[in-house]
Amino acid sequence: MRGSPQEADPEGAHSTSIVFASATDPYNFTVVDFTGDNEIVYVANITVDGQIYEVQLDTGSSDFWLNTQGTSLSSNVTDTNVTATITYGDTTAASGDIVLAPVQFGLNFSVPQLSFHQRSGKFSISVIYNALINTTSNGLPLLNNIFNVYPQDPNYITFLLGRTNLGISDGGIFTIAEVDSSWSAVVNQSKIAIAQGLGQWIGLMDAVIVNGETFTGHGLLSQKNINITAIDPAFTDPSQSNKTLSVFDTGTALGFMPQYYFDAVYKDVKDLKAFDASAGIYTLPCDTKLNVSMVFNGTEYPINPIDMTRLISVGNETSCITTFAPKDLTSQGIDFVLGDAFLRNVYTLFNYGNWTDEGSDRPYVQLLSTTNQSEAWAQYDDLNDARISQWQSLNGTFSPQ
Fold first, then answer.
1. Complete edge-to-edge strand list for the sheet that includes strand 213-215
2. Tell me, what DSSP letter sits at residue 162?
3. In sequence order, what are the residues at sequence separation of 6 or more whose Cβ sits closer than 8 angstroms to the Cβ of residue 278?
4. Closest CA to 94 of 66, 129, 58
5. CA torsion, points 253, 54, 106, 58, in degrees to nearest 10?
């Protein structure tokens, strides 16, 4: 999490269920387009030492850090005299002192002393926890602290990432220890087991379906030189070898997949061209219409075709590029990163299980599809035309390729 300070508003509306909606609500969730190219991140406000900071909601990371430059911390804040560096998959890092401070997140959750980074670079497994493990300071991540402070509440969170009628990320719902009533059926969905040895929200994906054709295997579990026991002893069953290790990551706007699957998804696209191959960016015709689904525990979760491509501006021209990028992630112990492009199509429940003191079972994820495949397919052409028209009106020159 990262953020900048705002003035505290003690009268602001707080809730364990926070809607990405009204800009007048200082505790709401919203979306931020940092780069101007629709790479949206989802953010919320959190109160630390009486000051409000805007932080990113990122299930791909454990550590909480703030940019406190320009603010003064009170006597309620304790410096642990420990420094640490959090390094991310894109090689960026955040370094600084670890301090303890009172934190409030929504009306119902307060943690008297939470450890966090004072950052002096860009915003995992918890580096802070490991740095403080042999000290008397509390190094547990924010949500672990919440669940331990409030043991009577279920130790799960949920995300519903919305979009406008033009397919642009906009709004949604985030909850702690409760399920949104409109999507309560999520608790009846099958439980996707999370890899125990990697400390991230990594589940086993059965397959990817592209235009009715099923693709499996070609992942870490199929490689005989990988120590599967270190990932999770439960995954050593030969029946698991065709599955792939996939991270559910709200902190990634798009997604990454092995080259084999990228080729499968985009193989029938005419005029697919490398724009920046080293970064995995490929242009394609803006009328490209793809029918792609991810399969977990035998259930198919379709991706709206509008989420399979996106628009970008390059100089005075606008192009369309692939949402997913090919990337070898084996060094990180994973195959796929399923970011917001996938997660906008499901209501997701993250159950922390025995990752917190109050849990007894292994952590798991439950998914409830929010995309009707046939309806999304039928509506795509009109939706895409409207998206292109809006983009052209905002960004000027338009090039369909």
1. 213-215, 207-210, 292-296, 299-303
2. E
3. none
4. 66
5. 30
pTM, 2 dp: 0.80
Exposure string (b/e) for 284-295, b if CB count within 10 Å is 16 or more? bbbebebbbbbb
Across 149-305, the runs of DSSP E, i.e. the strands, are: 156-163, 169-176, 192-193, 202-205, 207-210, 213-215, 244-248, 255-257, 273-276, 281-283, 292-296, 299-303
| CATH fold for the domain made of 186-395 | Cathepsin D, subunit A; domain 1 (2.40.70)
Q: Around 177, how many Cα atoms within 13 Å sit in the side-chain half-sphere?
A: 20
Beta bridge partners of 110: 104
Bridge partners (DSSP) listed for residue 84:
96
* Residue in this structure with the two tokens 């798009």, named with its chain if needed: 254
- Domain residue spans in the chain? 5-149, 186-395
Of residues 22, 346, 28, 339, the one with CA closest to residue 175: 28
Per-residue pLDDT of the chain (401 residues; tens, 9 = 90+): 433 333 333 333 323 455 543 333 333 445 554 444 455 666 777 788 888 877 777 777 767 777 777 777 787 877 777 777 776 656 666 777 877 888 877 655 556 555 554 543 322 456 665 677 767 676 777 788 788 888 888 899 999 987 765 555 556 788 888 898 899 999 999 999 998 766 789 999 999 999 999 999 999 999 877 888 778 888 888 888 999 999 999 888 889 999 999 999 999 998 999 988 888 989 999 999 999 999 999 999 999 999 999 888 777 777 889 999 999 999 888 999 999 899 999 999 999 888 777 667 889 999 999 999 999 999 999 989 888 887 777 665 544 44
* Residue 35 CB neighbours (<10 A): 10
Residue type, 401: Q
Please report the beta strands in 211-271, taking only residues with DSSP state E, as ranges in sequence order.
Answer: 213-215, 244-248, 255-257
- CATH superfamily, region 5-149: Acid Proteases (2.40.70.10)
Q: Do domains 5-149 and 186-395 have the same CATH topology?
A: yes
**What's the start-to-end Cα distance of the chain, in Å?**
36
For residues 221 and 254, give the distance between their C-alpha atoms in angstroms, rounded to a whole number: 24
